[in-house]
Amino acid sequence: MGFRSERGPVLIGIMLSTALVAIDATVIATAVPSVVAELGGFAEFPWLFSVYLLAQAVTVPVYGKLADVFGRKPVMLVGIGLFLVGSILCGMAWSMGALIAFRAVQGLGAGAVQPMSMTIVGDLYSLEERAKVQAYIASVWAMSSVVGPTLGGVFSEYVSWRWIFFVNIPLCLIAAAAIGLRFHERVDRRRPRIDYAGAGVLTVALTLLILGLLEGGQAWAWSSPQSVAVLVGGAVLLVLFVGIERRAADPVVPLRLLRNRLLVATNLVAACVGAVLLGLTSYVPTYVQDVLGTGPLVAGFALAALTLGWPISASQSGRVYLRIGIRSTSAIGAAVVVLGSALLLLLDESTSVFQVGTTSFVIGLGMGFAAAPTLIAAQSAVQWQQRGVVTGSNMFFRSAGSAVGVAAFGAIVNATLRGSGVEGDRVTPEALTAAVHNVFLATAALAVVMLAAVLLMPRDRARGRAPAPETVEAAAG
């Protein structure tokens, strides 16, 4: 179990790969001034974030299907390879346009690494072991949200912003070596029937939809012709995708899985997790700095309390769900998230940083009991041949939740500031407090939706067990 077994090097490779993907989502945040000073293109720099998240999110379902056909190992190694190539190109970028394009290459690699990490864990570890192992991975994601911006600032100030990408080279090679040499799997070498039409239409549809959510209210107004065209076009292609999948011999996303009650519920939980996390990581540091008047380091520590609570509870969730069941454990976790989100509503201009950190810690505890067990339930409910698709679907919904959160929370803040008569950059602490309070109110509502989604899950047949694969097949029809 864990690092001391023969699976240890593989787990280390998975955690290292996960860290690379997670850190690079935020590492460039504090390096933006240095990047713009050298390359120019200040107006385009938000695309450095958007294009990475977009390329990652839209490819996750496709990689999940490919893993079920060709195996996890080759897909994971391709993902690491793409991420490595993208990192080298980013470090050599000669213009803002080139850097944005190369960030897309990084995102394509990240789209494989993210679901494959969780899928390989599902393959290697038993139901009893999986919660603790996924706690390790959850802690990597959590710590990366703090480490990323810090690392970007250090490299930009003392070396060069280009090294935030070049440092990935040895780390990618170590991760690839650990997985390539130590991870062994047996794959059913059936003749693959790739649903190229479905994969292509799904990728374009998701690209348009997520692009519309990321850029709506930012690059263009929600009611603008660009916004309407992008969102409507994505929706039409999504309907077309459903029609293609109904006729496909080996669909990239089996529709019967999306009709299953357990999988629908766990995907909804994942979307809420992504949105709640986005709200916290985006606005807790802003609130602590601009309202409470602290520095970036203190704001990072306040948010870091979340990263402490999550792995603690996730590592213990296995013991709990083996006693009371996965659904009950997840319900407890979601209820704690609701409690923590309610505590967010008590924050104001006179709040102490300690109270902010304690509230973040409570939410982190709830997330650990809710996020890991629901993913484990989804993975345990299908056979090996569908685990990649199910895991990819869960990861996609979390990314989509984050994208929707970006759009929704940004719209809430802008609307609140406009209602307060704030113009330009002259934002007062009072106006910002009101705006962030509304974001926290939306976060609390999402936490309630998360709890409702958990309660939609079917009851466990036995303590600590998710519904068996045959249950899913029967329920899916």
Walk me through this protein's architecture.
This protein is globular. The longest helix has 36 residues, at 384-419. The two termini are 37 Å apart. It is built from 18 helices and no strands. With 477 residues, it is mainly α. It folds into 3 domains: 1-189, MFS general substrate transporter like domains (Growth Hormone, Chain: A); 195-249; 254-477, MFS general substrate transporter like domains (Growth Hormone, Chain: A), CATH 1.20.1250.20.
What topology does this entry show?
Blueprint: H1 8-26, H2 32-39, H3 47-70, H4 72-91, H5 96-124, H6 127-158, H7 163-166, H8 168-182, H9 196-215, H10 225-247, H11 255-258, H12 261-290, H13 296-324, H14 326-344, H15 353-380, H16 384-419, H17 429-456, H18 469-476
